[in-house]
Amino acid sequence: MNKQIATDVCQANIELQKQKLVTFSWGNVSGLDADEKIMYIKPSGVPYDELTPEMMVGVNMDGDVVYGKLKPSSDTPTHLELYRSFEVIGGVCHTHSPYATMWAQACKDLPCFGTTHADYFYGNVPVTPVMTSEEIKSDYELNTGKVIVQRFEKIDPLEMPAVLVANHAPFTWGLTPQKAVENAAVLEQCAFMASGTISIDSNQKAISQSLLDKHYLRKHGKSAYYGQS
């Protein structure tokens, strides 16, 4: 077992509760040991305040348990599909945070109305296609990952580290499990603010491309200048 990654994943899962992104056990975080091709993820149904690093479950890229005695999260196939397809990421987070889930349930992209959103997400956060009956009945969790990947066919997952699964809830990711949780927290705040924005003006337009570029690119990419070097 990679103790450092197991510890990071455990702490990231606990952070979900601290950030009030989960109710009961409605969420999970995973982290990838890229060298060993082992994913560590929260055990299924275990309360966050009971978690320890030793309880994290290590699975190979085929989903076979190689470390741990507990069952992994039921969302394990979704996480694995994201790691297989988005090779640059090192952490994945899934929650049912209220406002982001409202947008997912409405099957609507989350518009980029302002600079808070633009600092993290390069444009509207996309919603996936609605899953078919066949996709739901067979390999549901795996197919959830596949519809996310399908939606990102022309989207850079590092420029857009979040998705809304139609009728379901959000997934976020990042280079680390901690960054995946940070993106989940920011996504929830952006969804909250967007909901308020359209309650004030239902005809509000998205941010201009020039302002989106300025705020996103000053934090990301080779010409970023925000923060300390």
Summarize the structure in short.
The protein is of the alpha+beta class.
Explain how this protein is built:
- The chain has 229 residues and is an alpha+beta fold.
- The protein has a single domain, classed as 3-Layer(aba) Sandwich (L-fuculose-1-phosphate Aldolase).
- Helices cover 38% and strands 14% of the residues.
- It is built from eight helices and seven strands, in the order H-E-E-E-E-H-E-H-H-H-H-E-E-H-H.
- It has a seven-stranded antiparallel β-sheet, sandwiched between helices.
- Helix 1 runs parallel beside helix 7 and helix 3 (98-105) crosses helix 7 (177-200).
- The protein is globular and about 50 Å long.
- The protein starts with a helix and ends in a 12-residue tail after the last helix.
Layout: helices, strands, pairs:
Blueprint: H1 3-18, E1 27-33, E2 38-41, E3 57-60, E4 65-67, H2 76-85, E5 91-95, H3 98-105, H4 115-118, H5 133-137, H6 140-151, E6 162-164, E7 170-174, H7 177-200, H8 209-217
What is the assigned CATH homologous superfamily? Class II aldolase/adducin N-terminal domain
Question: Which fold does the CATH topology refer to?
Answer: L-fuculose-1-phosphate Aldolase
Q: CA-to-CA gap between the ends? A: 33 Å
CA-based gyration radius: 17 Å
Segments where pLDDT lies below 50 for 5+ residues?
Answer: none
Strand order of the largest sheet: 4-3-2-1-5-7-6
Q: Using the coordinates above, name the CATH class.
A: Alpha Beta
Secondary structure tally: strands: 7
Mean pLDDT over the full residue set: 97
Number of domains: 1
* Form type: globular
- Beta percentage is 5-15%
Q: How many helical elements?
A: 8
Query: What characterizes the major β-sheet?
Result: 7 strands, antiparallel
- Which class of secondary structure composition applies to the elements? alpha+beta
Oligomeric state as shown: single chain
Series of secondary-structure elements, N-terminal to C-terminal: HEEEEHEHHHHEEHH
Helical residues, percent: 25-40%
Query: Could you say what the CATH architecture is?
Result: 3-Layer(aba) Sandwich
